[in-house]
Design brief:
With about 400 residues, the protein is α+β, with helices and mostly antiparallel strands. Strands 5, 6, 12, 13, 14, 15, 16, 17 and 20 form a 9-stranded mixed beta sheet that branches. It is globular. The N terminus and C terminus are likely disordered. Helix content is about 35%, strand content about 30%. The longest helix has 30 residues. It has a domain of about 210 residues: FAD/NAD(P)-binding domain, CATH 3.50.50. Strand 1, helix 1 and strand 2 form a beta-alpha-beta unit. It binds flavin-adenine dinucleotide. The site of flavin-adenine dinucleotide has 33 residues, from helix 1, strand 3, strand 12 and helix 7.
Length: about 400
Amino acid sequence: MPKSKKPDIQDIVVVGGGLSGRIAALKLAQLGFSVSLVAPVSGHSDGRTTALWQKSISLLEDIGVWDELVEDSARLKKMRMIDDTDRLFRAPEVVFDSSELGLEEFGFNILNSKLNKKLQEKCDAEAGLTCVTDSAGSVTYSDDFVEVCPGSDKPVRARLAVAADGRQSLLRQAADIEVKSWSYPQVAVVLNVEHRLPHADISTEFHTQTGPFTLVPLPGRMCSIVCVETEEGANHLLSMPPAELARELERRAHSIVGTFEIVSDVQHFPLSGLNARSLIGQRLALIGETAHVFPPIGAQGLNLSLRDIDDLASTLQSARIRGSDIGGVAVLQSYEDRRRSDIASRTNAVDALNRSLLTSFLPAQIVRSAGMYMAGRIGPLRRLLMREGMAPRLGLRLP
Ligand SMILES: Cc1cc2nc3c(=O)[nH]c(=O)nc-3n(C[C@H](O)[C@H](O)[C@H](O)COP(=O)(O)OP(=O)(O)OC[C@H]3O[C@@H](n4cnc5c(N)ncnc54)[C@H](O)[C@@H]3O)c2cc1C
């Protein structure tokens, strides 16, 4: 279908074509806003996977990409947490089962490369969405509009800019929004393996003294592995030939799914955190890792970003119905108000869990072990944690 001519001032310009930016651009265009997406072509070489909870799957269904992705993804029916530290106080194993919530599964795990490719195709085909295949080179905010200048294309003017241009965001810096950023003495080593025994749709997180070691199901007899290590430990793993690395990872997994064969590149990500002091600026809203970054523990990062998108979309939709300026201060402030507590609670929970593994401080170890013990024994608490793990507020409805 031919795309309509770009109006002089669009409703929205989304900058950044990672998972957050493309999903936001599609959602907003499908709500009837005129949208430009300024993003360079994404590579499809990211071997990572993303575990997406039910609410995120609903958003992907809503924008029309999930039906064609479900076959390439693996169901996550159970989540198992195992204390694999050699500390004095060790917690018993805890299993969260989606059937306890009356769900068939908590969510699905999918390769980022597959999700990204589908999103890119959908963006290219979407009426009402103009794709400018370039990076933003500069941005200017003014009272009536924001102007984004791609390196080689003509400027895009819009009433609102949505910044999804990642942790080094040009749009955030140009708006002088300060960030709090920090790093952890850890690196995540990430790869995918084939294994001999079925994973039975169970995701397993071993809590070790260097951080979590996680096996997340992929279709068939495959899992993605996220192994959080010290910098030295990660370098050691990265220096190993594939067969030796496979044996070492199988040892760390206590052979629960049998022998491993590595079937992807081995990637690594130093762990860090970031929080933008504000989610909004003049005619600007931040989403995704432009606003918040934390370690890959408990599969929270993109799920949180998709809730940013949901809340932003419904805030803008209500503003339009009221006839309000979608880039105006009052509308943007209401987006910020809706998102603050979710972002703060996720960042703090992931940070606390990670630090409780690293610390040799006995009281912190006891609190973590007691928490896991109670989660294993007390049904209502376990169900509360399961719901809260998937999305906030759901957890407040105790059975
Ligand atoms: C090992 C690992 C495992 C993870 N597993 C999970 C999981 O299971 N579940 C989960 O929910 N989350 C997970 N996450 C987190 C998740 O991967 C991230 O939250 C998500 O990828 C961030 O996407 P984003 O689009 O917000 O940011 P990014 O992916 O950083 O995208 C930013 C985009 O902006 C572009 N850009 C930068 N500057 C410009 C510019 N000037 N103009 C235009 N474009 C620009 C970049 O090219 C990039 O494409 C994991 C993270 C890691 C590291």
